[in-house]
Design a protein that fits this description.
This protein is an all-alpha fold and 132 residues long. 85% of the residues lie in helices and 0% in strands. The chain has one domain.
Length: 132
C-alpha cells in the first residue's frame, strides 16, 4: 500500500469519525445542554458550517479514492457498499441541514438522533466490508 493510499484511508476514517461521532456526541450531550434557546443553536451552527463542509469534502474525495483503488470486489461487497452509501448520504445531508441557521431545537434533536443511528450503521457496515 502506497503512502497516498495510506493518507487517503486515514483521511476517510478521520472525517467519517467526525461525522458519525459528532452526531452521537451532539445528540447525547450538546442538544440536552442547549436547552431550547434558538440563538445558541444558531451560534453553534454558524461556527460549525465551515468545518462540516471541509469534513464532507474530505470524506467524499478520500472515499472515492479508496473505492477506485481497491482490488476487485464481489457482488456481495458492492451490495453492502451501496447500503453503506445510503447511510453515509443521510449522515451528510443531516450535517448540511444542521449547519444552517433557523432550525428549531426539536428538529435539531430529531436530526441528531437520525444521524447518530445512521453513523452507527455506517460504521457497522464498514466493519463487515473489511471482512469481504
Amino acid at each position: 500500500m502506497g503512502i497516498v493510499a495510506i493518507i487517503m484511508r486515514w483521511a476517510h476514517i478521520l472525517s467519517m469519525s467526525f461525522l458519525a461521532g459528532g452526531a452521537i456526541f451532539g445528540r447525547m450531550v450538546v442538544v440536552p445542554a442547549l436547552n431550547t434557546t434558538k440563538t445558541t443553536g444558531d451560534r453553534v451552527s454558524s461556527h460549525l458550517r465551515e468545518v462540516v463542509w471541509l469534513v464532507i469534502i474530505v470524506a467524499v474525495v478520500s472515499g472515492a479514492f479508496n473505492l477506485f483503488n481497491a482490488p476487485d470486489r464481489s457482488a456481495t461487497y458492492h451490495v453492502w457498499f451501496g447500503v453503506k452509501m445510503l447511510g453515509a448520504l443521510h449522515l451528510i445531508g443531516v450535517w448540511i441541514a444542521l449547519a444552517r441557521q433557523g432550525v428549531s431545537h426539536e428538529r435539531r434533536q430529531r436530526m441528531m438522533m437520525g444521524a447518530a443511528i445512521s453513523g452507527a450503521i455506517v460504521i457497522a457496515i464498514s466493519t463487515v466490508l473489511r471482512t469481504l
